[in-house]
Design goal:
Alpha-Beta Plaits; 6 helices; globular
């Protein structure tokens, strides 16, 4: 096997609290940075090209995330799984390890994603949801939010709901955008082919503005048509956002 390369695919989950997002940055903790330290230590190499299926901002969580790396050393996947989980901080878990073709790329293999967002809607904060849900202490009109959500479904140009994502196709097909309330906890789920930077957080932020009565549901259609990021500067907090599922 000398000189041969192997492409390892990792299935991960991580709690974004305390990390400055996925992308490696010097001198600050990131999810990619922690994985790189563990992988290079395990395989006894100086560096590996670790490719993630998505990028997450500081404080954002992932219930499912994929990343792959190529290395010219072979270790059985089940041993890689055990070793990495022993090296990584408790906020990161490796749920699966497999070998994939050398042509496989986690970023380009992702065919669709589901995000979910949690809102705690009660006058009193919930300490058990600290850094897990956005606390909105004022009553939200979920009916109005559901009415507004219908305008996001389908194929639209989401330029208004993105930030600094030049080069990516802003036309996206949203399969569904669902809201569900269970007591004081509101869950928002959205499935689409791909997402622009800040897109989910801006959609949620806009829905909250509607739930608070500051915007009307029909204004979503007008915001989409403007194709102007400055028209909808309503960013939901990052810690309520979860990358729920990735379709490869």
């Amino acid at each position: 096997m000398e000189g041969e390369y192997f492409n390892y695919l990792l299935e991960l989950s991580f709690l974004g609290t305390g990390f400055h997002g996925w992308q490696y940055q010097p001198n600050v903790p990131t999810v990619q940075g922690e994985l790189l330290k563990a992988i290079t230590r395990l395989f006894k190499v100086e560096w590996v090209p670790l490719i993630g299926c998505s990028r997450t901002d500081a404080g954002v969580h992932a219930e499912q995330f994929f990343a792959n790396f190529k290395v010219d050393k072979y270790i059985e996947p089940h041993k890689v799984l055990k070793a990495l989980n022993g090296m990584l901080p408790p906020q990161i878990a490796v749920k699966g390890v497999s070998l994939v073709p050398l042509s496989f790329n986690s970023r380009f293999a992702a065919k669709g994603k589901i995000y979910r967002y949690l809102i705690w809607n009660n006058r009193i904060r919930n300490p058990f949801l600290l850094d897990r849900a956005w606390h909105i202490p004022f009553p939200l009109d979920v009916g109005a939010m559901e009415e507004a959500a219908k305008h996001f479904v389908g194929k639209h140009d989401f330029t208004t709901f993105a930030k600094n994502d030049e080069g990516r196709n802003p036309v996206i097909e949203v399969e569904y955008l669902q809201l569900q309330r269970d007591g004081d906890l509101i869950e928002i789920r959205i499935k689409a082919t791909h997402f622009l930077r800040y897109m989910v957080r801006r959609i949620v932020g806009t829905l909250v503005e509607i739930g608070l009565g500051r915007l009307k549901p029909h204004e979503v259609k007008e915001l989409l048509e403007k194709r102007d990021p400055s028209a909808a500067p309503y960013n939901a907090k990052p810690h309520g956002l979860y990358l729920h599922k990735v379709f490869l």
